[in-house]
Amino acid sequence: MTLKPLPKLALFAVLAIAACVTGNVRTAPFRARPDSADAGSLRGPFSGRVVDVTTHAPIAGALVYAAWTLERGSALPEPAGAHEFVGSTDAGGNYRVPSLGAIPAGTRITEFSLLVYKRGFVAYRSDRRFTDLGPRMDFAQEDNQVLLERWRNELSHARHLRFVGGGTAVAALTQWELADASAELEGKRPSGDDIRPGRGEGPYVVAAQLLTDVDIKARTKYDGQFETGPLSDEPDTATYSSQHFKALGRPETWDVAIRVWRLDPGKAQERYDELLSQLPGIQEKDEVANRSFQAAENEIRGVGFLDGQRGVVVLITCGISQCGSVDDAVSLEQTVYGKLKALVPVGLGGAVK
Amino acid sequence: MLKKIAAILVLVAATQSAGAWEAQTTHAGLAEQAALASRLHHRLTTLGFNGGLFEELTIPPADARALIEDLHLLSPTHGSVPDARGRQTALAWLAAGAALADVPAAHGANHFYDPTTKRGWERPARGVAGVLRGVSLPERGVPAPDWVIDKQNPFNLAGFLDQYAKAVTAATPGERSRAMAGALIAAGAMLHVLGDLGAPSRVRSDFAAHLEPLGGGGDDVGSRMERIATLAYGRLGVPLPGRTITRSHLRDYFTSPDNGGLADVIARSYFSPNTLPESTRVNEAPPVLVRAKPSLPAKLNLMAAGREDGTTLRTTDGTCLARYRIDHSVLSWSLDDDCMLEQLAVIMPEVAAYETGLLDFLLRGELAVAIDQGQVTISAKGLGAGTVEILVEDDRGVRTSIGKSALAGGPTPNDQLAKIAMPTYGTRVVAVFSGADQAGEPIVAVGALPLTH
What DSSP element (H or E) covers B389? Predict the structure, then answer.
């Protein structure tokens, strides 16, 4: 093999970066900080802030999904797994992804990618832009700024789903786009342009943001796995969303589900009253938010509340194997209410127009 | 645009691997583009997978533990790792197959084919031990056109056809979903094997080009050109196919007697790093070509070659073919990153076009199902000997065979293959033909018709 000349600058970069390689981590294709010329670290930690591209208002409760790609072998390498981190932005739109710890012997970290997803916005990837699918050049390991653009009707759901990629948490949140993506390929425009959550003004909230499997496990000490996704009984709309935590390999009494209605205050009151009249074994308790209740039917516990100021009604159902006592269900309800308050501050236009 | 990408290359050199077009990014992106440009979406909806490319298909982990384990070697960020229930979209299953073709790593040695020598991967005689201490590379590989039909290949043509037929004939929706996912994995893997032949080093026996240091440590070696493709296009930026390549035989997509296979086209159109013209002394002898093609122009620009940066040999459409330079009366040749990037801008859409063609080839079999005077008729053009089976689907989605017959091949009146009394129940009639087409190629042809009683 003969050595071929390389452009001097490229050769310099190759040599310089090779000299910087430490152990089994490749050099990061992004900067350490936005104002730095130094390469960042694929291991992390990563931090940044997510804001609305138009208003520059912080976006709370956005999904933050990080993945490290591992590889092993030489010349004919093969994938060696990945590590994932799932989190969300805080009330100020900030996120933090901790450093990756030890990796299996014989593997190397070849890639890190960050995805930020918030319903009603175009997703953000650290490696590619949505607009032209070109390489993103402005991602930084720390103090990164993520500008989320609001979703527009003319954008393609098929393209967006490809862009977003995977991961169980991401797939659960983007499942609602599947039908529209399929319709696009059929040559049909998505129907009901205004029925999707996130179409109105103000901060957005969907069920998946209010309750996670981590919240449930922290309360109930459940050590199994959940399959998550919207409930199948009623599709998500601009005013309703749901999340089903199906316990894998267990009876339904291990399942948990949350339903969230987001309405104007008057309609929220009506919806709450409907629940009171429809649900079996119901008792008003007024433990959470403006009004709350407990209900029970056979092996399912139900709890719910009305937050009149935000125009939000929440119903949580929890099987008796998962929620051994009603206190477990109420604790989950309080967790949800706490997140709701963080995501939708009062006076910021909580109701969907 | 090119300068911008070149700047990226400088910034991120040595950050990615490249044993082939990178499996989880470039290959997955090529497969996705092929799917979007092919008839796959339409075929899926016809068969009852109503969401088409975005239909969720499930392979229960308990049914395919080894496969699921392999899938979890992939990074979920690229969208081809199923959830805990073994579920992801049809498009993702195809991309997963494209990513899995390099698992285990030794299978990557079966993604080479030199149309001149008719051989595949051979471990370079020299250099490997020095470059890769302790790394074991396969001595030889199965040539790519043979690998897609090789029995040792878990994702071969036979596997695709078997799963594709079951995706129509299996009784329950769950079984059909699982089979279709399996078929798409096999299809994706075959697309990968074909797509690899878009890299000049793989079709010009330039194995040493796959042992170039990539900067990520002593054992991090691979093809520089394939790494550039990853950096420039990733998964999402892979270009759309400009056209769809049509061939009558599977092998012809790889290599054909008329030199129209992807390997043939790439091998004669581009140099690879170690198959450039040999260095020669100016005015003593013309440049010596390792291969007859690409040929050199009758006159080189030796005046420009004498400048410090040399000059560029370009194709008729202006794409960089190689750099050449005269230094101390020696004419030497090279391929730099910018030159390879220009080539990729031409090669990638062509690879996508071949992959789209191959996917359409795999799905080419189509049966017309019609109802005429109380009879269900099945007809098709271009099929040879085989078996046709007709099934009815009830309102629970369960399919039951209502007729099966062997066909000898040859012309039939109105291209009719079978006729059977219309079932008295059901929501859909489906038909599947398994056999050969008129070109003698194995084929599964399918068709469906909704029923209204």
Answer: strand B383-393
